[in-house]
UniProtKB/TrEMBL annotation:
SMART domains: AAA, NIL
Annotated ABC transporter domain residues: 10-249
Record organism: Thermobacillus composti (strain DSM 18247 / JCM 13945 / KWC4)
Keyword ATP-binding carried by entry: yes
Protein name: ABC-type metal ion transport system, ATPase component
Keywords from the UniProt entry: Amino-acid transport, ATP-binding, Cell membrane, Membrane, Nucleotide-binding, Translocase, Transport
Length: 344
C-alpha cells in the first residue's frame, strides 16, 4: 500500500502486542499509534519494562505485532511476505545497546557483512566498507577485532554496519546506555551528523532524558505499553503534562533544583520558566524598575533544548506585597511563567 507524500515516514497504527498466552498473557504494546516524519530524530523514552524495545523492534518486524499496521516509506510492512519484507528491511538500519558485532570478524568485515548479501564485487565491498569506516572515524581500527575496541568504538562500527545498505531509517535501541558520558556525547554527535548529512531519519529508544535533550526533535513518553504523551522535545521537557514524564525528569533533576533555599530570609519565593522568544529579554530588571522590590536568584539554569533557549530560576523578591504582585504581573506580561506561593 503506497501513501500520498507529506505523511510520516514511519507510521504505526494501533499496534498491539502481548507475550505469553491465556491467563499468563502480558500486554507489552497497548494500542500504540504514532508517526515519525522524514528527516527527524524521534525519541521514545520510558522506564525499564515500558515496552520501548519491543515497539522499536515492531518497526522492522523483528517483533511481530498481534494487530495493527506498520508502514515505512509508504510500504505497509505488516502485509508483506518474507521475501518482500527482507528487501524492505535493507532500508532500515538498526543499532543495539550491546553492539551485536561478530567477534570473529574484523571491524572492516563486520561493516562489510551486510554488503556481501548485495552481490557486489570484492573490491566494491572493500571500497564501500572503508568509506563507511571513514565516515564513523574508525579507519585506523579497520583490522582490529571487536575485543580490541572500546565500547564507543564498537558502537561506531555498529553504526557503520547499519548504514551499509544506505538506509532511510536508523533504529537505535539504547545505543548509548552501555557507554560513559563522554563517549555517549561523541556517539550522539555522530548520530546527529548522520541525520543531517545523509538525511537518515532516526528513531531511538532510551531511558536517558539526556539523550532526548541532546538530539531529539520530538519525543514520545511510554508507560506500560502506551504512549502517554508526545511532542516537541523542548515543549515536553519544559512543560511535562503527564506524571510519567515528570517522574522521568525528576530522576535527573539537580537535587537543589526545586529547593527554595534561603526562604527563611523572608520575602516571596517564586519559580519562573521562560523559553523561546521570552529568553532574550531583560524581563527581570525591567519588572522591578520603578519599584522598591529587590531580587536575589537562589537557583537557576539557563540553557537550550535543541534550538529552544530557556531559563528556569528560583528567585526571592523582597519588597511591599503590592509591588511584589505587580512585579510578578509584569513578568507574566513578558511571557514568563511564574509559580507563586498561595499568599499572592
Ligand atoms: N521475547 C519476550 N518474551 C516475553 N516477554 C518479553 C519478551 N520481550 C520483552 N518481554 C517483556 O515485555 C516487557 C517490555 O519489554 P521491553 O524490553 O520492550 O521494555 P523496555 O521499555 O525496552 O525496557 P528495557 O529498557 O528494560 O529493555 C517486559 O516486561 C519484558 O519482560
Amino acid at each position: 500500500m503506497r501513501l500520498p507524500g507529506g505523511v510520516g515516514l514511519i507510521i504505526l497504527d494501533n499496534l498491539c502486542k502481548s507475550y505469553g498466552s491465556g491467563k499468563h498473557a502480558v500486554t507489552v504494546i497497548d494500542h500504540v499509534s504514532m508517526e515519525v516524519t522524514k528527516g527527524e530524530i524521534f525519541g521514545i523514552i520510558g522506564q525499564s519494562g515500558a515496552g520501548k524495545s519491543t515497539l522499536l523492534r515492531c518497526v522492522n518486524l523483528l517483533a511481530r505485532p498481534d494487530s495493527g499496521s506498520v508502514t515505512v516509506g509508504g510500504v505497509e510492512l505488516t502485509r508483506l511476505n518474507t521475501r518482500e519484507l527482507q528487501a524492505q528491511r535493507r532500508k532500515i538500519g538498526m543499532i543495539f545497546q550491546h553492539f551485536n558485532l561478530l567477534s570473529t570478524l574484523t571491524a572492516r568485515d563486520n561493516v562489510a557483512f551486510p554488503l556481501r548479501l548485495e552481490g557486489l564485487s570484492r573490491q566494491e565491498i572493500r571500497r564501500r566498507a572503508d568509506e563507511l569506516l571513514e565516515m564513523v572515524g574508525m579507519s585506523a581500527h579497520a583490522d582490529k577485532y571487536p575485543a580490541q575496541l572500546s565500547g564507543g568504538q564498537k558502537q561506531r562500527i555498529g553504526i557503520a554496519r547499519a548504514l551499509a545498505g544506505r538506509p532511510d531509517v536508523l533504529l537505535c535501541d539504547e545505543a548509548t546506555s552501555a557507554l560513559d558520558q563522554e563517549t555517549t556525547r561523541s556517539v550522539l554527535a555522530l548520530l546527529q551528523d548522520i541525520n543531517r548529512k545523509l538525511g537518515v531519519t532516526i528513531l531511538l529508544v532510551t531511558h536517558e532524558i539526556e539523550v532526548v535533550r541532546a538530539i531529539c526533535d520530538r519525543v514520545a513518553v511510554m508507560q506500560r505499553g502506551q504512549i502517554v504523551e508526545s511532542g516537541r522535545t523542548a515543549d515536553l521537557l519544559l512543560r511535562p503534562g503527564h506524571p510519567a514524564t515528570r517522574e522521568l525528569l525528576r530522576q535527573t533533576e539537580d537535587p537543589d533544583g526545586g529547593d527554595a533555599s534561603g526562604s527563611d530570609a523572608g520575602g516571596t519565593i517564586i519559580r519562573v520558566l521562560y523559553s523561546g522568544d521570552s529568553a532574550g529579554k531583560p524581563a527581570l530588571s525591567e519588572a522591578v524598575r520603578g519599584t522598591s522590590v529587590q531580587f536575589v536568584i537562589l537557583h537557576g539554569t539557563v540553557s537550550r533544548i535543541r534550538d529552544v533557549p530557556y531559563g528556569r530560576m528560583t528567585i526571592r523578591l523582597t519588597g511591599p506585597s503590592g509591588e511584589t504582585a505587580s512585579v510578578i504581573s509584569r513578568l507574566r506580561e513578558q511571557g514568563w511563567e511564574v509559580e507563586t506561593p498561595d499568599v499572592l
